[in-house]
Design a protein that fits this description.
The chain has 159 residues and is of the alpha+beta class. It has five helices and seven strands; from the N terminus they run E-E-H-E-E-H-E-H-H-E-H-E. The strands form two sheets. The protein has a four-stranded mixed sheet. The chain has a three-stranded antiparallel sheet with strand order 1-3-7. Helix 3 runs antiparallel to helix 4.
Amino acid sequence: MKLYHTSTIIVDKPDVYHSREHLDFGKGFYLTTLYEQACKYAQRFLLRNRPAYVNHYLLDEDLKGFNIKKFERYDEEWLDYVGRCRKGTQNVCYDVVEGGIANDKVFNTIDLYFAGIMSKDNALGRLAFEHPNHQICILNQEVINRHLHFVTSEEIIIE
């Protein structure tokens, strides 16, 4: 599977240790299957006058023996999982988690829900109309060491 990771540096030796805490799927190495999404994310760095690279990888299809969670859509299970990860209370351990990204619009809905301003039903109703972006978070370094292969990197520039 082709995957992409956007960074201010070339990441030819990725790891799960340099991630921030309390992200959508926890502390890990985040990638996407969507090249356009990776390039769009690069704009965040470019707007801050920082370099931006889209790093290309191949992930082995056979991850037998690893605990993998895949969210197909923004639903109650996804919302609860992201909420626990962002609060730091997630206690289920997965090696890889795949699903939608809490982009700005989704994030605003989640914030309103966690602040108690919006009910879970209303939040899920708003999320139902969102087309999920895509992210894969590798939470286990062993998956990276054995199954994620760096291919190349390309610098993204403002056109």
